[in-house]
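During the no-cost extension, the postdoctoral fellow (Dr. R.K.) reprocessed legacy sequence entries with the updated structure-token encoder. One reprocessed record is reproduced below for audit purposes.
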Amino acid sequence: AAPAAAASAADAAEDPATNRKVLQLLENAGAAFTTSTHAPCRTSEDAAAVRGATLASGAKAILVRAKTGAGAASEFVLVVIAADQKLDSKACKKALGAKSISFASEAEVLEITGCVPGAVPPFGSAWGLRTLMDTSVQEQGATINFNAGLRTFSVLGLAVADYVRAEAPTVY
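Re-encoded structure tokens follow.
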């Protein structure tokens, strides 16, 4: 019973504001997509299973802290990769011109995005953050799927070209 209670508490903390922002961004860009409401998904594997989609078609959003040098302020950046990939820290650091990068803590993810981990959509612009997109997102296929601000809500079948037009990420 304890794990279910913990999941319910995390789900209760979700704020639908990001979901609305993402849907508005996509609508403003004239993007075609479908949506799905489903059981809560925290991992990319769970999301792919509930969507009936390949793991690679998921766009995994990772909040990182980039530090450019000694004494320099750090910057949070949203990095987007195909969900079947692991973050290539070396390539990410090079693309950001950073001395180091680290994953944001769960508390930082919630504070910065208003989303619980697993619900963060691939739109750093929703919070005034830079978005960095790995080429794996383009290489996995023509469309992507992702949780859109809630662990229980997915955007499905969004053309990668529409995503790029709506978000204008830096591709590395």
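The chain has seven helices and eight strands. The longest helix spans residues 17-28. The remaining legacy entries will be reprocessed before the final report is submitted.
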